[in-house]
Amino acid sequence: MLNFRFEKTKNAVFISHIDILRSLNRSLRRTGIKVRYSQGYNPHMLVNLTQPLVTGIKSLCEWASIDTDFDNEKEFIKLYNKACPEGLSALECIITAEKPKIAANVTASDYFIECEEAIKFREDLERVAFEDFIIEIERKGQTIKKDVRNLIHQVKVDERGIFARLSFGNLNLRIDKFAEVLNKRYGLQIRHRDITRQTQLIKQNNKYITVSQYLKGLR
Amino acid sequence: MQFEDLLIKVEKPARYTGGEYNTPNMKKPHKLSFCICFPDIYEVAMSNLGIAILYDVLNKNKDIVAERCFAPWTDMGKALKENNIPLMSIETKKPLRDFDILGFSLQYEMSYTNILYMLDQANIPFRAKDRDKSYPLIVAGGPCSANPEPIADFFDIIFIGEGEEADEKLCKLVIKYGKDKQKILEEADKIDGLYVPSLAKIKDGINTKTVKKAIANLQKTSYPLKPLIPNIDIVHNRAVIELFRGCYAGCRFCQACFFYRPIRYREREEVVEYARQLLRNTGYDEIGLSSLSSGDYEEISCTISEIKELADSANVNLQLPSLRLDSFSKDLLKSARKSSLTFAPEAGTQRLRDVINKNITDEDIERTMRKAFEAGYRSIKLYFMLGLPTEQDKDILGIAEIARKINEIYYEINQKRGVRITVSIAMFIPKPLTPFQWCEQISIQEMIRRQTLLRNELKKIRNVQYKWHCAETSMLEGVFARGDRKLSLLIENAYKEGCYFDGWSEYFNFDKWQTAIKKSNINLDDYLQEKEIEKPLPWDFIDFGIKRDYLEKEYRRALEGKTSLSCKNYCRGCGANRLMECRRHKGKENA
Fold first, then answer.
1. Residue B209: C-alpha distances to residues A36, A81, A165, B539 (Å)
2. A12, A26, A55 member nearest B283 (Cβ)
3. Helix H or strand E encompassing A23
4. Interface predicted TM-score (ipTM)
5. How many CB pairs under 8 A join A and B?
6. Residues of B with CB below 8 A from A14's CB?
7. Fold of the domain spanning B239-486+522-543
8. Does domain B3-212 have CATH number 3.40.50.150?
9. Which of A3, A187, B109, B450 is deepest in the core (most CB within 10 A)?
């Protein structure tokens, strides 16, 4: 099983999850690497992606797993990056003996929010995980209020901006919703393009490890 | 708010961002900047082969950088206006006003208001006479150039015919004369295929100065083998190989058939090589063949087999051309992915099919359907027209009869599962450069009566889905198709009333159009009624190659219910080969 981490930057941040999957399929076909297909009525390439990211947000840690016998990690990155559109380059490749369950195991994600103003509210911001944190969600035409403090694991602030570790996966706090509350509460002006997802994390033995570390353990 | 911030607020932001795979180098040193403008949204524009061809041809020229700009969807249009952001190119986000040339694609009469919408968004005056030399040269081309008069006042130059070579000739002039617009127009007026409306000689409202249609030499012009690969789903999301241009069939209602004559071919070896390269360069999971009638391509079976082999080895689906199913082997049919089969009898009875020269018989339909159902197809799309010349109610009921028969054939072959038959109805619109260019177009009330008659009949047949075109839109399309210069006022007034995206049913507003019609003081019946053969037509000034008396002769044969053979069997001397050698005549003596 070949797993690779790719960025979602530049114009690619505006491509939706389903279109990323389609684009990835095309890039893989252009590499000439043989990938296995499903055997159904409409055969499709056996590719798995991690959970969708909010459109408009940059990422350095999207993961894809593909079912192939291709076994050269460095060569894959070279071939793939020649064949992919801008903003979707592969950054790391790890071949594992078995099929990993990345999407099922990921429980959190680290984000960096570029915001120099945030330092003024450092104390307050670093405490947000311990107080009420109400987000508003639109559901069936109604606005629902929800306290999500248990989905905020860590917030750190420095001169450059805010580092936030939020739940991601089955329990999920959307980073744009998180930023929306900060904007309202502290008068910040965080835009989608100021946010970058840095890592996806898996909890093992009560400790967070990166997807990369998890995959290396399956080599 | 900046443009980047608008992107997260609108639907499908990737329509506006670019960054597609195979984007050429936009930073190369160049002498001329060209923006290809398409008056509809990204998904429609990017499905257009003509746009892909021109983008490729222009960007391969060392002196030119060509970018794209498509009509922003209504949400983005409003956001741009509210934030005073002028319409920009997709690639480098350059405002349209800063280009040397803006080239609009004229695909459909109902997109004319969208041309004004795009100019408005770009803060550019609509009429050529109101634009001084500080504005880009604004040109247009495409199938609607068969009669460019209704939009002539908006453009500096209109390409008549195919743009591949004419576009580059104009670019050379602009590089040579820079901002001297008048000189450019005077020189362009001397080039075949370039029509300069401001230099036309108008007599009794009709231009009398001949302009010759431009025809591309397919052997000499390049083909986009590294097309842009959209980052979002578009209407036709597949690699496309153009087999040939022109059509042998000669259906009397079909403008494309006559507009794209003479017939020019790509040889089989070239087609297969294109398929090989497209599969490698695009990564698409589907490849299709493009032409007006792929079934008429010489050696279609072996071409398909060779491409199928390449496609299979790359796990790519080959979309089979529908009409000639009987020319494919059973194995090939069985292994094809069966989405749905499209078939266009166009008329419900043999008599009317003879009038329009659609050489399909009831037996052809039955045989094809039988073969399709045996191969496993379960979804059939049928295309017909209502309002054809000499049409009677029994011809309309004949459409239902065909659907009924197909249903029966299906159940003879497959009794376990249901079939889906879609009957799609367009209204007949007499188009310039066809033998029916003199015909009457039926009124809105009559269109609705005939549509209702058919709908009520189809309701009695199970598994049939009925789709029809809006009568009001069809009427306006007919007005603009055969219109004259007076109609530019109507287009302008309609846009001012708020009409745009008129080809989209959710945005088409006939009440606003009616207000615009009143304000423009135009009698639409003048454009819809039957035309006297002796009188000049607004597009008579264009030399399409096709002779007027040939069209007249075909019109008379239609009224007598006589068919004409396909060009494959017999050359009827339409005249198209006066402009360039026709495939029909290659290596043969003229008939």
1. 62, 55, 72, 11
2. A26
3. helix A17-31
4. 0.92
5. 76
6. 7-8, 13-14, 17
7. pyruvate-formate lyase- activating enzyme (3.80.30)
8. no
9. B109
